[in-house]
């Protein structure tokens, strides 16, 4: 009788535990001893996680070496992590290479924990660089870089020469960002081109390095041995960046001392040097290391992500000439072929906005965002998320969820137009993204995608007159893989004839951030979400 009662009590306890998941981890693959699921990882991590979510549900756990990962794959749970419990999940698990490249991980805004220093760095970026006033202050510098890009495309068209579209978009983005950061510090066009080229190589190396699997991240106890040499490589890259930043800062300081006057066009570097001289804001220190770390954040975080978004938009429009014709028709009707787009035109270009939103939906700049790390044990969907675990929000999968979007794999900009249905009910498909970006901008009534475009689309439209065939003829996009990516995530690597693609390039140049709002949203996604 006693044994029967004991068994009954054990059975009831098991049922109670089964009915209350708050003390259990989310379900997930069992993995192997010691290494967990590392041997089965797919290089396309977001697609691999999406397949696991289809099996285990919208929240699952996965063991990666000695680290526990928790993956969230639904708008409701993303809101719970990013908005409802944002302070608890605001920590970061800094990768070993990122800690090295970012001056220790506590000097920049990406990896800094929430506190006085993070708030100061956020204010420096959001209020001084990304605010409407800050962007307007360097508008002339953006104009200069945009027109330089157009001159290059005109020259290529006149010579019927090939254009490496991806490289040109990257260089244009880089020039706009660096012009916004330090303005006229680099004097001549030749010097700016040289610095831009050097930065491009550095950013590419850093991106590849940060994306490479690192034993030190999966087994922190082995980090001190740097078994793959990744930290040594990151130290070398950091020193190269350090030398470039030191040269630029030195030029600015010497110019200020010689003239005794601030630059004619104030820029981000000028403000940071002033803040560094003051020592901070009284609540947190601000050093020259912070200056360099923030410059690196902006350059690395805002270039390839933005240029990739532009390139994806081009690829999608190349595949759909009908959509490209609608974009051109809207630009011609609102601005005209022989005029330059001004910011006042932006509210009148809803279809161009919709194209960019749909591009960001299908091809988010960071498919898994920057992973979060709870400071204490948390509960999500009645499951326990232990302190120190790495929490991924799979934006890529959320944006392709058939429960949220109609025909999710199709490129349909119309879904973001009034009456378009699913694209209107979720801003970028994820309410938490909208709320979080607005909170950081201090603009609870604005929308983070308003004014995604700014600048000079119609100036690029003039290039269409020089082109022969319609856009998309003469260029091609490589076949997509099973996850919907073009192979390598790029347009065809063979340079395409400028005359055949000028209309397409002209539209997509207008998307490149001479376009401050595009840059603003991109940086918000990178830094703060």
Can you tell me about this structure?
This protein has 23 helices and seven strands. It is mostly helical and 529 residues long. It has a single domain, classed as Orthogonal Bundle (Cytochrome p450). Strands 1-2-6 form a three-stranded mixed beta sheet, covered by helices on one side. The protein has a two-stranded antiparallel ribbon with strand order 3-7. Helix 12 packs antiparallel against helix 13 and helix 14 crosses helix 22. The longest helix is centred in the middle third of the chain and has 30 residues. It is globular and about 65 Å long.
Considering the chains and any ligands shown, give keywords for the structure.
about 525 residues; three-stranded mixed sheet; globular; disordered C terminus; 23 helices; two-stranded antiparallel sheet; Cytochrome p450; heme binding; about 55% helix; mainly alpha
């Amino acid at each position: 009788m006693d044994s029967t009662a004991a068994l009954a009590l054990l059975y009831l306890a098991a049922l109670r535990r089964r009915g209350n998941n708050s003390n259990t981890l989310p379900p997930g693959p069992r993995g192997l001893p010691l290494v967990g699921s590392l041997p089965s990882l797919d290089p396309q991590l977001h697609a691999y996680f999406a397949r696991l979510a289809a099996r285990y549900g919208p929240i699952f756990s996965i063991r990666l070496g000695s680290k526990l990962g928790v993956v969230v794959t639904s708008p409701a749970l993303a809101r719970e992590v990013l908005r409802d419990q944002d302070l608890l999940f605001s920590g970061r698990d800094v990768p070993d290479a990122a800690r090295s490249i970012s001056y220790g991980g506590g000097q920049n805004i990406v990896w800094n924990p929430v506190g006085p220093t993070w708030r100061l760095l956020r204010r420096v970026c959001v209020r001084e660089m990304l605010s409407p006033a800050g962007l307007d202050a360097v508008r002339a510098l953006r104009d200069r870089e945009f027109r330089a890009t157009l001159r290059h495309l005109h020259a290529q068209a006149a010579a019927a020469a090939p254009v490496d579209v991806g490289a040109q978009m990257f260089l244009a983005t880089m020039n706009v960002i660096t012009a916004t950061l330090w303005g006229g510090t680099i004097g001549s066009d030749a010097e700016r081109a040289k610095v831009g080229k050097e930065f491009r190589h550095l950013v590419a190396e850093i991106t590849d390095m940060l994306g490479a699997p690192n034993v030190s991240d999966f087994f922190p106890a082995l980090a001190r041995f740097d078994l793959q040499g990744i930290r040594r490589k990151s130290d070398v890259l950091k020193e190269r960046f350090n030398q470039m930043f030191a040269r630029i800062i030195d030029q600015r300081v010497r110019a200020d001392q010689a003239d005794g006057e601030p630059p004619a066009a104030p820029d981000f570097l000028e403000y940071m040097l002033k803040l560094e001289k003051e020592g901070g804001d009284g609540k947190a220190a601000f050093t020259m290391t912070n200056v360099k770390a923030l410059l690196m954040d902006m350059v690395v975080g805002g270039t390839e992500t933005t240029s990739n978004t532009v390139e994806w938009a081009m690829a999608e429009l190349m595949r759909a000439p009908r959509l490209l014709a609608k974009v051109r028709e809207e630009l011609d009707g609102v601005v005209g072929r022989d005029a330059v787009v001004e910011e006042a035109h932006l509210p009148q270009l809803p279809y161009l906005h919709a194209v960019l939103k749909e591009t960001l939906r299908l091809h988010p700049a960071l498919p898994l965002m920057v992973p979060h790390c709870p400071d204490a044990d948390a509960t999500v969907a009645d499951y326990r998320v232990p302190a120190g675990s790495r929490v991924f929000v799979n934006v890529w999968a959320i944006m392709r969820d058939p429960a949220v979007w109609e025909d999710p794999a199709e490129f349909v900009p119309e879904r973001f137009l009034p009456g378009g249905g699913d694209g209107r009910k979720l801003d970028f498909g994820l309410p938490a993204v909208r709320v979080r970006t607005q909170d950081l901008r201090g603009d609870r009534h604005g929308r983070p995608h308003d004014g995604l475009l700014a600048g000079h689309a119609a100036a690029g439209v003039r290039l269409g007159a020089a082109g022969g065939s319609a856009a998309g003829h003469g260029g091609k996009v490589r076949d997509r893989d099973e996850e919907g990516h073009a192979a390598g995530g790029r347009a065809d690597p063979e340079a395409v004839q400028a005359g055949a693609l000028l209309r397409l390039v002209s539209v997509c140049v207008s998307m490149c951030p001479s376009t401050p709002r595009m840059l603003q949203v991109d940086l918000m996604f990178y830094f703060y979400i």
